[in-house]
Specification:
Order of helices and strands: HEEEHHHEHEHHEHEHEHEEHHHEEHEEEH
CATH topology of the largest domain: Aspartate Aminotransferase, domain 2
Shape: globular
CATH superfamily of the largest domain: Type I PLP-dependent aspartate aminotransferase-like (Major domain)
Helix content: 40-55%
Number of helices: 15
């Protein structure tokens, strides 16, 4: 079947919850994907920060093939070696003490919210349940994660939301201070906001948040679902900001394309979840855990955090040159590592579509911010090719 026939069939049997591009991806290797008609694209979105090693990385696919022939699933009623190995490596890399495995970022955030409330109620008092998150944040689509998300447009239609959430201005320590009360148990935020428009806080902001949380005996939760696993130039974004949180959530890049979420915590709060208090049937299965191990070991061996840092800085500088050239359309290029945004004065949807026609996959968030989340293996040559195509598209838009 051609693309048009496949798309027509999809509309008959799948909820229309995604604004999809009008082509069907069938293959991928490294930075490239190929559609059903044989067209090739350089993927600068990386499955929305998932494919940190690119598509079908041999280390990941080999590990998965070997494991799938030995054991696929037994549930968490039994011990499995891949889960323990992955947890030990994550604890070593993060400096935290315990892992809970789930299937997605939203589930990891749900676990973090539950742990924070459980710890606070047991150690700080029964009235400690409020969690302060940030405006323009994104924490997932399940009800608790949706309630934690500080965007009305995403919450609209799903009210009543889960009670106990307040929303501060991202980057403003004063805004956060005004919302803290005797009911506050945790502060939850993304080190760099992704869906909110690739917003990087000023230097020192996260240290101020950490110091405030320590002073008030408040749990600090960092949502590293998009920023983690080397994306910002360090394994965890908080390393680059010089802090360590109480709880961290991970997903996206850690599974190498397979569904894997993780909630990690220090020993101070980890006791809050005990047998029967939380669980996940599929969480941390042996297949996804060997994929996660392959991802982490490859990033370490190939020094991909360094590539993310250096290549990301090069990418941002190239985008800044476009800002100078197209001042009426582009107003700011920003990011950290390979989490990069180009803010426009106009809606970015048409530019995203034009880039796809030229063979480059990107997306637009916050309506006017072009977002780039390429695999950590991206090269300067590939970035130069994208910049050339984007230059042409912006030139056409300017006319």
């Amino acid at each position: 079947m051609n693309n048009e026939q496949i798309i027509a069939e999809e509309k008959d049997c799948i909820f229309q919850t995604y604004a999809r591009f009008p082509f069907v991806i069938t293959k991928g290797k490294g930075m490239k994907v190929i559609d059903n008609n044989g067209n090739q694209y350089l993927d600068f979105l990386g499955g929305i920060a998932v494919d940190v090693l690119g598509h079908c990385h041999p280390k990941v696919t080999s590990a998965v093939r070997k494991q799938i022939n030995k054991l696929v699933h037994v549930s968490n009623l039994y011990y499995t070696i891949p889960q323990i190995k992955l947890a030990k490596l994550l604890c070593r890399l993060s400096g935290l003490n315990k892992c809970f495995f789930a299937n997605s970022g939203a589930e990891a955030n749900e676990a973090a919210i539950k742990l924070a409330r459980k710890y606070a109620k047991e150690k700080l008092g029964a009235d400690k349940y409020e969690i302060i998150t940030m405006k323009s944040s994104f924490h997932g689509r399940t009800m608790a994660a949706l309630s934690a998300t500080g965007q009305e447009k995403i919450q609209k239609g799903f009210e009543p939301l889960l009670e106990g959430f307040k929303y501060a201005e991202f980057g403003s320590i004063d805004s956060l201070k005004t919302l803290i009360s005797e009911k506050t148990c945790a502060v939850m935020l993304e080190p760099v906001q992704g869906e909110g428009g690739v917003k990087v806080p000023d230097a020192g902001y996260l240290k101020q948040v950490k110091e405030l949380c320590d002073e008030k005996n408040i749990i600090l939760i960092l949502d590293e679902i998009q920023t983690g696993i080397g994306r910002t130039g360090t394994f965890f974004a908080y390393e680059g900001f010089g802090i360590k949180p109480d709880i961290v959530t991970l997903a996206k890049g850690i599974g190498g394309g397979l569904p894997l979420g993780v909630m990690m915590a220090n020993n101070k709060v980890a006791f809050g979840l005990s047998a029967g208090s939380h669980g996940s049937t599929f969480g941390g299965g042996p297949v996804v855990c060997v994929a996660g191990l392959a991802v982490l070991e490859t990033i370490i061996k190939e020094k991909l955090t360094k590539n993310a840092s250096e290549t990301g800085a090069y990418f941002i500088e190239k985008l800044k040159e476009l800002v100078v050239r197209y001042k009426s359309i582009a107003v700011d290029a920003r990011g950290k590592g390979l989490m990069v945004g180009l803010e426009l004065t106009v809606p970015g949807k048409e530019i995203v579509n034009r880039m796809a026609q030229k063979g480059y996959l990107i997306n637009c968030t916050a309506e006017k911010v072009l977002r780039f989340l390429p695999p950590l293996i991206v090269t300067r040559r590939q970035i130069d090719k994208l910049i050339l195509a984007l230059d042409e598209v912006l030139s056409e838009a300017k006319l």
